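Morning!

This is the sequence you dropped in the shared folder:
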Amino acid sequence: MGCLRQAVAHALARDARATSARLMGATGGLALVDLVARTGLGEARAGLAGRSVLIRTRSQMGAAQALVELDGLAARLVLCPPDVAAEHLPAVIERAQVDALVTDDEALACHGLPTYVLAAPSEPVTEVAETRTSEWLMFTSGTTGVPKLVIHTLAGLTGAIAPRAPDAEPVVWGTFYDIRRYGGLQILLRALTGGSSLVLSEAGEPTAAFLARLAAAGVTHQTGTPSHWRWALMNPELALIQPRYVRLSGEIADQAVLDSLKAFFPQAAIGHAYASTEAGVGFEVNDGREGFPASLIGVDGPVRMKIEDGSLRIRSSRAASGYAGAEAALADGDGFIDTGDMVEQRGDRCFFTGRRGGVINVGGLKVHPEEVEAALNRHPMVRMALVKARRNPLTGALVAAEVVRTDAALAMDEAELKSSILALCRETLAPHKAPAVLKFVDSLAVTAGGKLDRQHA
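The structure's back. Tokens below.
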């Protein structure tokens, strides 16, 4: 593939229609042809050769431009998400051996690093040898304290992306994700290497405004977490878009959200994918059902999966090679990464039950919050739910649920609705898993990555 700039150039040369492809933000756009042929760093770009560069940008557009500018030129690209706490940056800089910073806003300069400010690509790219394999350092999610950094390459990050057929219909990607996290980066790379347009969200942009922009751009492929999609389903502007493909990843996609999306977009293919920052893209499921076929377990290939002690383990050519600046091994002696995602096989299907570290202990019995949430979400009057532990002097903890109702449920008697929801849970869950407390709320917090915020629940 070469570097990312070369991959985009190849996509443009393969399909003449791709010359109109753009990255589109709320306040402007950037043509892929300009990303390939021009630079926003000017002559200073040559000074970044072989360096370890922290990419810290105000906008997603700036981050995308920096990745194209630097892959194959810099030794390391350290892609900083917008929610990384400033007090963690010194440790990140040390671990990644950062010696330069590229940004689209001088105000983000930090810690005395030599700073290179991106402008709009305007100057022709001068000849700089882009022959090295750059390391891409990604921040892991879901950790407290200083985040870990895992090391990828462009080849590994694009390993799950199949080339588009020359006669395929043009694609316009849209994503609720931020491209500075693994899930969003996957969509950016699909767009760039496929010569396709991509609509990017802006920080603080109302969902209704973003959906309107997606509609104006003619989005054909829209992606997000299940939480992203549940919020979108509550928004009337969702009816503005008519995608051919809807994709979910980042959280467990339960049957309720898959069915809701199919009902809303009957013309669309609905798929969900499993991926993690450490293990890379594992698989995609496109049969409309939650979980994944058990036949995927134990199959040799670029990705091999197994279930050990209840958790999914993955060995893959798409996985990160290790942690930056850490002695801890990412994989075991056989090359398998323990994802920490718990899986239960029932017949010919495997189902995710939750995270190993998120278990609620009810009198010595284990409860995965995600399993209870899936039961709650099956109720036709529930839009989304969050399950957490509530301390109890007798059992240690109780299962407590916060529920966002559908619009149709707002006119119902709350006591009757609670009774109906809890009755459904008791029908489908073991007694200790059914919520002991249920509270209706107007909204649920999500993280910058689009997942339910469990740390602050």
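Headline: The first helix runs from residue 4 to 14.

More detail when I'm at my desk.
O.
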